[in-house]
Each structure stands twice: as structure tokens, then as C-alpha cells.
Specification:
With 306 residues, this protein is α/β, with parallel strands linked by helices. 37% of the residues lie in helices and 16% in strands. The strands form 2 sheets. Strands 1-2-3-4-5-7 form a 6-stranded parallel beta sheet. Strands 6-9-8 form a 3-stranded antiparallel beta sheet. Helix 6 packs across helix 7, helix 8 packs across helix 9 and helix 9 packs across helix 10.
């Protein structure tokens, strides 16, 4: 029931370039008939190449018709002409579209520099057209797990800190420059076949300004290792509380031995659920919104039968 950008760039290899005018529009049609509201996200290259015919058939209605991903290296003197050609090929105007400024390749180590880059990108894109929204997306999360086995590591969320600075530079509200990141992860997305290896047992716990990466011991039963990981999150002083979201309740229960340990899929789900909740709550706070705590309950013990 909510609008969502859908990036389909990883599907062409498996489903076929030549067949995309069949499967791509049909995929969006099926989703919309199921009451979803997907908005196709495409690159300038997609709009200026053979794929455009498929995307033209998949445009949304009653929302942004599409989102255009523009990589940081594409923001140059030729950008305006390329955007105009892309709009013409798609049959849309900037007011119909969201533009996503993707700074996946940028160095986010200096918050002030990144904030100025974000503001400059916003000004450059707004000079081209009156976009429905401009999203600034990037991440400071490292490619390799930064924590040693059994240790914790704090990584600053510089993309978040830079975005907060950027919206202050000219008094812009969050509606002018929308925040985007890659979840609790780096910008490199790889879909590999299962190797049979054991996933690293850890949580990436998003705080107000950092990620607390808590990594379990390299050896031992998963139940024992993940219980220790969750206990360390609770003891860190950064735990948001059981009522923050369902992921936090799961971490709390795992620390108490009431749930868990989960699998690699579970840990990614918990990382993502907590991260999105943290971001939504914090952006909401900037806009003056408040959020109710979720409800939770302890497990019920079965009394002995006599």
C-alpha cells in the first residue's frame, strides 16, 4: 500500500535483455494488481538505450512515474542534455520524476566535505528541472566487516551526519533533499551462489550517529555466541529498548535466552528492521513527529503439573 522505488538492474542478466519488454512491465503490473505501489528506478543509460521501451510501459501513475538514478560521476556539464534526452525518451518531465543522486563511489570520511557535495548536487539538479524529489544516497559503511572476532567496532554514519548538515546550509527542509543510504551495509551489492560457508555471527546496530558492529566469537555454538552478541548490545549503552521495534525485542529476548540464535538471514533481517526504524524515527523527529513504543511480552512459563 506504500510507494516504493524498485531497482531492477540485477534482473536483466537472468531474465534477458531482449525479452525485457515482456517481463519488466508484466512484473510491475502483477505487483500493482496486488495493491503494491512500485515505482521503477532506472539509470540514465537505461533511458538512453534499448531498455527504455520496457521502462516506458512500466511507468507508475498517481505517484512519481519513475526515479532516475544519476551517479556522482555523471554530474557534469553534459548532464542537462543527457537528462533532457532521457525525459524525451521516457515521455515524462522532471516534475513526474524523483532523481536519486547516487554517491556510492564517494569518500564519506569527511562530514563537512560530503555535506557541501550533497548541497552542490542538489543545486545542480534543481537547475536542470523541477523534480518531484531529490534523494541523496551514499554510505560510510566499510566493505569488509570492521570488527574482529569477539570484539566491537563503532563506525560513524557520515552519510547521515552529512545529510543533516546539508539541509541546514540554506535552510532547506528534508523535503528538498531526501536522505538515502544502503541500510546497514556498504554500497557493493553482489548476489553470489551459496558457498556453504558459515555467515559471520554479528549484528550491525544502528545508533543515532554510528553503527555499533558487535561480532561474536569465531568458535562455539551459535546459540551461545549470539546470546553474547546481544548481551553486549544491551550493555553498550546504545540499546534503544525493547519497545523501539520488533528487532530490538528479538535482540533483548536472544540476550535473555528466550529466543534466537537465528541464521544469517535472520541477522540481516534484524539489522535492516532496526536500521529502517532508526532512520524513519530520526527523520520524523526532524519534522516534529513522534512515535509510540511497540508492545512486548515475556515468555510464559508452564508450571509443573502435579
Amino acid at each position: 500500500m506504500r510507494e516504493a522505488f524498485l531497482d531492477v538492474r540485477f534482473l536483466f542478466k537472468d531474465f534477458g535483455e531482449d525479452e525485457c519488454t515482456d517481463w519488466l512491465p508484466r512484473m510491475f503490473d502483477v505487483a500493482r494488481k496486488a495493491n503494491s505501489k512500485p515505482i521503477p528506478l532506472l539509470s540514465l543509460s537505461d533511458a538512453l538505450g534499448p531498455r527504455v521501451a520496457a521502462f516506458r510501459q512500466a511507468l507508475a501513475v498517481d505517484t512519481a512515474k519513475c526515479a532516475i538514478r544519476i551517479e556522482s560521476g555523471e554530474i557534469d556539464k553534459e548532464l542537462a542534455d543527457r537528462v533532457a534526452a532521457a525525459m524525451s525518451a521516457l515521455g515524462v518531465v522532471p516534475a513526474d520524476c524523483t532523481v536519486l543522486a547516487d554517491f556510492a563511489e564517494a569518500d564519506f570520511s569527511d562530514v563537512t566535505i560530503v555535506a557541501n557535495i550533497a548541497q552542490a548536487a542538489l543545486e545542480e539538479l534543481q537547475a536542470i528541472g523541477r523534480w518531484r524529489q531529490v534523494v541523496f544516497q551514499g554510505t560510510n559503511y566499510p566493505v569488509v566487516n570492521p570488527a574482529e572476532p569477539g570484539k566491537n567496532k563503532v563506525i560513524p554514519r557520515n552519510e547521515w551526519l552529512a545529510w543533516k548538515e546539508a539541509i541546514k546550509l540554506d535552510g532547506s527542509s528534508p523535503e528538498h533533499l531526501v536522505f538515502g543510504d544502503y541500510g546497514a551495509d556498504c554500497a557493493i551489492v553482489e548476489f553470489k551462489k551459496a558457498s556453504g560457508g558459515i555467515p559471520i555471527r554479528h549484528y550491525r546496530y544502528t545508533t543515532l550517529d554510528s553503527w555499533l558492529v558487535v561480532r561474536g566469537a569465531g568458535a562455539g555454538r551459535a546459540k551461545t555466541v549470539m546470546r553474547s552478541v546481544c548481551e553486549r548490545i544491551l550493555q553498550s549503552g546504545k540499546f534503544a529498548g525493547r519497545g523501539f521495534c520488533s528487532a530490538d525485542d528479538y535482540i533483548f529476548k536472544t540476550a535473555k535466552g528466550w529466543d534466537g540464535p537465528g541464521t544469517g538471514s535472520t541477522w540481516r533481517e534484524i539489522n535492516t528492521a532496526h536500521h529502517i526504524t532508526r532512520v524513519v524515527r530520526d527523520i520524523g523527529g526532524i519534522k516534529g513527529m513522534s512515535f509510540a513504543e511497540t508492545t512486548f511480552s515475556d515468555p510464559v512459563d508452564q508450571p509443573p503439573l502435579v
